[in-house]
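Students often ask why inverse folding is considered easier than folding. One informal answer: many sequences map to the same fold, so there is more than one right answer. In these notes we will look at a single instance of the problem. The structure comes first.
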């Protein structure tokens, strides 16, 4: 009798089949245990027969009894070996069954959680069920292609869903990006999913775009001394402001990677960059006066870091303005003006972003 249980043939709709299989497996344990007990009894009998002494005096009878004893020992030992082999085979057959059932149980649990996380009263039951099936199919593909199993992929999808990400975005590339980025950098996929959901929500990016962004954040990490984990964490502190000013998430991510490599630790780089962005638009009299003195305001009194539509200029232009303004200036004057315009936190970003050499904007983007 050959039992072939294949994971993909198990689905949420197979709970009745699962119950039957579980029932069968429950019966396997006692059967194997009973066989093992009998085997031990045979072993004891065999050992006992080996120790028996044939003391009958009549030669013919004694020889006959001795032969019967030897035959019994041989058969007993053969039965013992056969029994051990059968039990070993039974156990070997049982282990994959137990493993498959355990994995299926975890998958079913995660699918239920994902179904709850993506529940939408405006959708029909059929539409929601179809979306869950699509997520399961995508998770199975990732389970085959990566070191994470299907249940772990679904759990990652659940984190994205709880982060407010639409199912079409999750199965359209964001879920795949989170799993691959986690595997590449040896990170917890759920933690990566949390960071990517923040970026997706802030910048209103779809699945395909977020998949490309996941690749970019990995390359930005490779091009600098910033890790993906610290970079993802830091970016959450400035993502909202960057998105408001219509900066691309790729530019903002690269800028934070440069700040971290330049000496600003982890989340400090994120808060510093957030202040740097938000204070480009002057609010106080001190800011306005300092920016006027440095010709950082146009004829209408607007920041020259912004374009005609009020969006931040490309980072290459922003860095060009910083260099033109501060290169050749005394270090103490750079600090004084920077703090007046960007505050103490934002001022930390200025000397690093305008820098040249190995950690410059141009160098990092060419790698």
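Output (designed amino acids):
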């Amino acid at each position: 009798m050959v039992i072939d249980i294949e994971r993909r043939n198990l689905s949420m709709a197979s709970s009745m089949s699962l119950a039957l299989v579980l029932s069968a497996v429950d019966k396997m344990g006692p059967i194997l245990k009973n066989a093992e007990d009998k085997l031990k009894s045979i072993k004891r009998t065999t050992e006992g027969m080996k120790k028996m002494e044939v003391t009958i005096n009549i030669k013919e009878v004694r020889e006959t009894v001795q032969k019967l004893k030897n035959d019994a020992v041989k058969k007993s030992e053969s039965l013992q070996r056969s029994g051990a082999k059968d039990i070993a085979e039974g156990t070997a057959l049982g282990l994959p069954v137990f493993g498959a059932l355990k994995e299926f149980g975890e998958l079913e649990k995660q699918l239920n959680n994902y179904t709850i996380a993506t529940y939408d009263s405006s959708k029909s039951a059929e539409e929601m069920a179809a979306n869950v099936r699509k997520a399961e199919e995508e998770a199975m593909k990732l389970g085959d292609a990566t070191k994470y199993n299907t249940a772990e992929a679904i759990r990652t999808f659940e984190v994205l869903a709880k982060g407010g990400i639409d199912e079409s975005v999750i199965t359209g590339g964001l879920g795949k990006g989170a799993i691959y980025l986690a595997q590449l950098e040896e990170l917890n996929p759920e933690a990566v999913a949390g960071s990517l959901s923040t970026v997706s929500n802030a910048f209103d990016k779809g699945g395909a775009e977020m998949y490309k962004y996941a690749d970019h954040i990995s390359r930005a990490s490779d091009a600098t001394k910033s890790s993906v984990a610290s970079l993802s964490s830091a970016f959450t502190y400035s993502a909202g402001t960057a998105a408001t000013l219509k900066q691309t998430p790729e530019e903002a991510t690269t800028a934070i990677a440069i700040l971290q490599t330049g000496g600003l630790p982890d989340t400090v780089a994120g808060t510093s960059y957030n202040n740097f962005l938000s204070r480009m638009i002057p609010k106080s009299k001190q800011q306005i006066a300092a920016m006027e003195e440095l010709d950082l305001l146009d004829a209408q009194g607007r920041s020259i870091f912004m374009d005609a539509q009020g969006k931040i200029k490309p980072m290459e232009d922003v860095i060009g303005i910083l260099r033109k303004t501060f290169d050749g200036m005394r270090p103490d004057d750079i600090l004084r003006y920077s703090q007046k315009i960007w505050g103490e936190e934002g001022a930390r970003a200025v000397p690093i972003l305008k820098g040249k050499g190995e950690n410059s904007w141009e160098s990092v983007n060419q790698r």
